[in-house]
Amino acid sequence: MNEPGAPDPYQDLALALYYRVAELVKDGKTRDQIIYEMGLKGVRRDTVERMLERLAQSQRSVQRQRGWRHLVLGGVITTAALGLTFGLFGFAPANALAIFPTLVGLGVGGYWVVRGIFEVAGW
Predict the structure, then answer these.
(1) For the whole model, what pTM was predicted?
(2) Of the residues 36, 55, 61, 84, which has the fewest C-beta atoms closer than 10 A?
(3) How many domains does the chain have?
(4) Cβ neighbours of residue 50 closer than 8 Å, sequence gap 6 or more
(5) Distance between CA atoms of 107 and 9, rounded to whole angstroms?
(6) Distance between CA atoms of residues 21 and 34, nearest Å
(7) Domain for residue 2, yes or no?
(8) Do the domain assignments include residue 15?
(9) Distances 122 to 26, 32, 71, 111 between C-alpha atoms, Å
(10) pLDDT tens for each residue of 13-49
(11) How far apart are CA 32 and CA 22, in angstroms?
């Protein structure tokens, strides 16, 4: 029996297995290859499948968070470019050369907004 506050060896083992599964995913192994390789080490199939599902949930969560950051970044860039385009910040473009940077800003901001939408939606 472990003393209070002492590390749990089973928890350490589960964490090590989870990290190993994550490394295999990172190395580009397929789901079946991971299940086979971990099965050779004596890990049950249902345990590996549960780890793969939790890893996939974690990856989706990280992707959604990144998507929200990209949406905000794109919104800020697009808002600033629109503000410059319509003279909201005291700048009234007089010719096509002066408006070019704002059009680039609109394009870049639009790109980040669309990218963020795709990441949040999980596409």
Answers:
(1) 0.64
(2) 61
(3) 1
(4) none
(5) 53
(6) 7
(7) no
(8) yes
(9) 19, 23, 14, 17
(10) 888 888 889 999 889 999 999 999 999 988 899 989 9
(11) 14
Total residues found in the chain within this entry: 123
| Amino acid (1-letter code) at residue 43 | V
Q: What is the DSSP letter of 17?
A: H
The answer to whether 117 and 69 have CB atoms below 8 angstroms apart is: no
Encode pLDDT of 53-103 as tens digits: 999 899 899 999 999 999 999 999 998 888 877 775 566 555 666 677 888
Q: What percent of the chain has pLDDT over 70?
A: 85
The answer to whether 123 touches 74, Cβ cutoff 8 Å, is no
Rg (alpha carbons) of the chain, rounded to whole number: 24
Rounded to whole angstroms, the Cα distance separating 35 from 15 reads 17
- Which residue range(s) make up the domain with 85? 9-121
Q: Using CA atoms, how far apart are residues 43 and 99, in angstroms rounded to an integer? A: 62
Please state, in angstroms and rounded to a whole number, the distance separating the CA atoms of residues 122 and 116.
10
Whether residue 96 lies inside any domain: the answer is: yes
**What are the tokens at 35?**
């299940």
What's the pLDDT score for residue 71? Answer: 95
